[in-house]
Amino acid sequence: MLTFGLVTFLVGALLATVNITSRYALKVYVDDQLKRIPWDLAVYQTGAVNGDRSLQGYVARTPGVTKVESMAFLRARFPEGGEVEAQIDNKPFTTPWLCLLAASDPAILPPELGFALSRNGADGKKGAVLALVGPEYAMGKAFLALQGAKNFTLQVHVAEQPRFLFNTPLQSVVRLDRDDLNRWLMDQTGSVSYIPYIGAILLMPYDWEILTKFDQVASGFVPEDVLGVGNQEAGHIQMAEYAPELVYVAKIDRPSLISGWDIPGSLDRVAEINRQLHRGAIETAPVAKKIYQGPEHTHGDSQEVGDDDTKFGATSFVVDSTTEVLLARMQNIARLIGVVSLLVALPLLWMAWVLAANLAGLLMLNERRTLGLMRLRGISGQLMGRALLISVTMGGLGGGLLGLVAGSVVPLLIYERGHLPLGVLFDGRQLAIFTAFLVISVVLALVISRRLVKYATTISPLEASVRVSGSEATSASLRFGPVQAVAIILGSYVLLGWIFDLAISDLPRMAWFRLGDRLLDFLGLPLFLYGVATLLASKRERIQHVMAPALIPIGGVLGRFALRHMSAKPHRTVAFLLIVALMSSVSLYPIVTSRSFEDKAVRGAKVQIGTDWQVLYNAPDLIDVDRLNGPAETQIAAIKPEIDKLVASLKRIDGVRDATYMVESILPTFYLPGYGLRGVPLFLLANAETYRKSVYAEPSVGLSDSFDDIMARTGHDDVAVSPPVADFWRLNTGTPILLGLDAERRATGSNTAGVLAFLPGIPPKSVSDRQGYVQARIDYLNYLFSTNAYMATGIDNAKLKPLQILLPRVIVLLKADPAVDPVAFPKAIARANAFPPLEIHSLTQEVAKVGSDMYISLALANMRIYLIGGLILAVVAILAIAMANYSEDRRTLGLLRIRGASPAAMRRFVLAMLLSPALVGLALGATSAVLAGFGLAN
């Protein structure tokens, strides 16, 4: 009873620990994902608001909501020649779409605004940023012409007299890519927005009065304070094609509403808040005024089609919660935690099986004479068998229950630092899982005890009295049969599949086998070890050949006798081999694998950002805009000295070790599908050799050749390209590539240096890796990442001299001391020059964005259980096997002493019997662990 109670205690504790550990890993993962979600929910209101802010107040008063911020994105296409007029520095400013983008929390907006707000205008007021959106042919000249602009004004004509609406200082004029803005909005709010194809976006501080005035004139009427008392009849103007969007982003009380231990309950609580907000948004919605729209008006061709209703729809309210999406996905995983725990524990359960089998064998050896005496006294085998079954069942139940308690309570106390959340243990789903684990533990004990029960019910008094029983002699013979051969084949298939990325389910019409592949991922390694261990121990000659190199030197004068004695008991040898091999493999391969898992995020972020810090500047801020005209030769010659001054000033900052730069240029006449005529970026490297030594990259970053070789060719006037460019133009190393036209419309080109998977140091297009995106948004992000086209070459490439280009940004890459203050250092960068940077990115920020894969998080947590549980099981199993061997070999050891063997020789004999199979099992397990770890890391 005690023996099988010990086995079920270990099995129950193991299963419970793996289950609680998996749940804790899921909790940690959910907590990490929540940190990546800046706002838990967003209430989207489309339609005119007419100065009504009641909805924001309603959201703020909703129980469970702790903070609310607002973002307004007002998009208007005013009629050409209409009453509303925009001016820049008192000159008319015409654009197909004029948009206002403002937020009560500047962190919601792109970083361009944040740096602009750090400076005051000439009159001491906070400024705005004018962002031009559109292709090069539409916005390229305007971008240069507007550099240095000071003021933006919006006015409305009433009775043919201009009336002032609002005015704001302009801090800078920048180019803004639609995809980059949507990527930023998705990172902040979890959703994309409609961004006009051609237009201007005024990014400005949140001023409700200005937003209300813009909303009113776009809706077709003049604000009363602008209209004046005597002009009430002129209060209606032509309505713009108007697509307003107000977003109220909110944070909820996460500590009281969300618990990683109770994902279903957390999901219900968050979903209820979202449902309440959706109902309340409709009830609290402001009613739009009835507006005079005027006669039909043609807006001209600006590549936009469709009427207002079909494009934007009527006023509506949507509550979108990335937190709810995250919890819904995690709930699906939480439902499978019990099955995952069992699959993860399979190798350790195998070790427990070997342990229990040897303990049963030990009982047979120790209690053989007792069983024989009981039969001699007339006790029937049936009665003995029934008593043994009751004893095993009671011991299994008691040990299993204690194991479940220990395996769940102890980890919880450790994870929660002394606090025991009873709700985690007494949850209905968790109790059902514990019941299943208890049944598995007892069934395992009963199955293994069959051999003992059968032995007890059939043993005769005569067999109990002999030195070696007939059943023991029969079990001593070990055969390598079809089952063991299949085990080796399946195990080899799994290991080779991990290493070479092979799977039957990946073959055509074999997708139905995917579940089998997943199951073999858990069973493959123990199957392989079992088959190989049985193969080694199935023949005496093979055992002697394998064990001789270790056993004879350790055994000394009794070494050869120990070798023959071991080969006579192959079943003991294979048990020892298997338990040590399983122990070493499940303990070692997590160590091999986990480091590669943890390192991948850092490596990916390093490749993306290139160095420790990346700083982006608006190129026209460095130089007089009139000098950024003409061919590439003229523009580069003008801007290079200014960039050198910029880099020199950054190098003087405390903590900066080194710096290099690249210039982003736009090729307006280089065509690529999906880019239209907006231009593909060509990054001009300050020095290809310096860049190659300064940035972090790996050889595999180069697809057609190693990264270093491709970069070396860019220093010889060749051009490296990204996969989208190479695929469309069918480029290979050395292939001529047409880059564009010169001022006289003549073709200008170069040769291809190679294809790059990624160019380290280019402006990042990353978003925070989180599970809160719905599938459609994931597809959109995948589209953005897969179609990221660019090229790269040296800035002194002579073949670029006549090329027509535009220089929008300068990227400076800084190597910094690891000890720099992450808060003070970017502030020092922003103060280093008279003009602020557009963006500042750090390696730490990018690593935080990448995060960890959910399944890798679960795997790493369970690998620790592999290490601890494997060692505990192995130690107990080795002790059990050693005790069984000693019980069986007591007479042999006594005869050796009678024949004159010294105590020292006896110690070496026992040590050789223990260590030689352990060393062979260790070698077998370590080799398998290296193969498994290498395969999983790949």
Q: Sheet with the most strands?
A: 11 strands, mixed
| Rg, Å, rounded | 37 Å
Helix content class = 40-55%
User: Widest sheet: strand order?
Assistant: 4-3-7-8-6-9-5-2-10-1-11
Word description of this protein:
The chain is α+β, with helices and mostly antiparallel strands. Helices cover 55% and strands 16% of the residues. Helix 21 (514-537) crosses helix 24 (570-609).
Entry summary:
This protein is α+β, with helices and mostly antiparallel strands.
Question: Topology, please?
Answer:
Layout lengths: L1 H34 L5 E6 L7 H8 L3 E13 L6 E5 L2 E3 L4 E6 L7 H6 L11 E6 L2 H10 L5 E8 L2 E15 L2 H12 L9 E7 L2 H12 L4 H4 L13 E12 L1 H4 L5 H22 L23 H5 L3 E5 L1 H14 L1 H8 L1 H21 L1 H9 L4 H35 L6 H4 L2 H31 L2 H5 L4 H7 L5 H19 L13 H24 L2 H16 L3 H9 L2 H40 L3 E6 H4 L9 H20 L4 E12 L12 E6 L2 H7 L12 H8 L3 E4 L1 H7 L6 E6 L5 E9 L19 H12 L4 E4 L11 E11 L7 H8 L7 E4 H8 L3 H35 L1 H9 L4 H35 L1
Helix pairs in contact: 1-11, 1-12, 1-13, 1-15, 1-17, 1-33, 2-9, 9-11, 13-17, 13-24, 13-33, 15-17, 20-21, 20-35, 21-24, 21-35, 22-23, 22-35, 23-35, 24-32, 24-33, 24-35, 27-28
Salient structural properties:
938 residues; alpha+beta; 16% strand
